[in-house]
């Protein structure tokens, strides 16, 4: 496994989107920065909010694109190209319709699954799909025609508490990823279900 050098949290910019389901990846990077005492600052040349943290004695860059979701790759490619970070050293956190709220998964590679942020990142990285993903479950509204409205609305309070617990657990699993490797981190995160911890 290539050591991860960049962690990206996907979302849409602006206060009207800050608490919508589509911003789950951005919540995760915000929490990661907070727990590691890092400030995220807007950086124009990277089209996003960036910061640096040390996790298990490794230097890691953080990025939340300030572009809209479907242009996420512009920010990721700008930062990755500038610091010569290969796709295999990038972890992208995003909302995942195919997982229920309260669960999350790590994976490497794969397609975009209809996610506009992942689609644009793959394209901007020269169609390289080998970056890692942190899939934060938000559930599915039941029909594909409802997806756009679903991801751009706030979750009800009971569901939001599951999402918050999952983000918290994902941050802890990230520390394990850096100290003990992906397999241990996956074992921890994939066994977690916020719904059963109530």
Describe this structure in a few short sentences:
35% of the residues lie in helices and 21% in strands. The protein is an alpha/beta fold and 198 residues long.
Task: Describe this structure as you would to a colleague.
It is a single chain. Helices cover 35% and strands 21% of the residues. It is an alpha/beta fold and 198 residues long. It has one domain (6-191): Rossmann fold (3-Layer(aba) Sandwich). Strand 2 (41-43) and strand 3 (48-55) form a beta hairpin. It is found in: Cytoplasm. One of its GO terms (biological process) is rescue of stalled ribosome. TRNA binds at residues 17, 68, 70, 116. It comes from Zobellella taiwanensis.
List keywords for this structure.
Pept_tRNA_hydro_sf; hydrolase; EC 3.1.1.29; 35% helix; alpha/beta; Rossmann fold; Peptidyl-tRNA hydrolase; 198 residues; globular; seven-stranded mixed β-sheet
How do the strands and helices of this protein lay out in sequence?
Elements: E1 6-9, H1 24-35, E2 41-43, E3 48-55, E4 58-65, H2 72-82, E5 90-96, E6 104-108, H3 116-124, E7 132-137, H4 147-151, H5 157-180, H6 182-190
Parallel strand pairs: 1-4, 1-5, 5-7
Antiparallel strand pairs: 2-3, 3-4, 6-7
Helix pairs in contact: 1-5, 2-3, 5-6
Low-confidence stretches: none
**How do the helices and strands follow one another from N- to C-terminus?**
EHEEEHEEHEHHH
Q: Which word captures the global form? A: globular
Main sheet: strand order: 2-3-4-1-5-7-6
């Amino acid at each position: 496994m290539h050591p991860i050098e960049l962690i990206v949290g996907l979302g849409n910019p602006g206060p009207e989107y800050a608490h919508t389901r589509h911003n789950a990846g951005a919540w995760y990077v915000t929490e990661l920065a907070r727990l590691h005492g890092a400030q995220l600052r807007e950086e124009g040349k990277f089209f996003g909010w960036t910061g640096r943290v040390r996790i298990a004695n490794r230097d890691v860059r953080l990025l939340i694109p300030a572009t809209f979701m479907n242009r996420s790759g512009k920010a990721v490619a700008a930062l990755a190209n500038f610091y010569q970070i290969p796709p295999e050293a990038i972890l992208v956190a995003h909302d995942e319709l195919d997982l229920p709220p309260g669960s999350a998964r790590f994976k490497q590679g794969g397609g975009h699954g209809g996610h506009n942020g992942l689609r644009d990142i793959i394209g901007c990285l020269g169609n390289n799909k080998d970056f890692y993903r942190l899939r934060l479950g938000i559930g599915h509204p039941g029909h594909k025609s409802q997806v756009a409205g679903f991801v751009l609305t706030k979750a009800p309070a009971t569901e939001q508490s599951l999402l918050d617990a999952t983000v918290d657990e994902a941050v802890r699993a990230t520390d394990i990823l850096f100290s003990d490797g992906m397999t241990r981190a996956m074992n921890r995160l994939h066994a977690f279900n916020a719904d059963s911890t109530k």
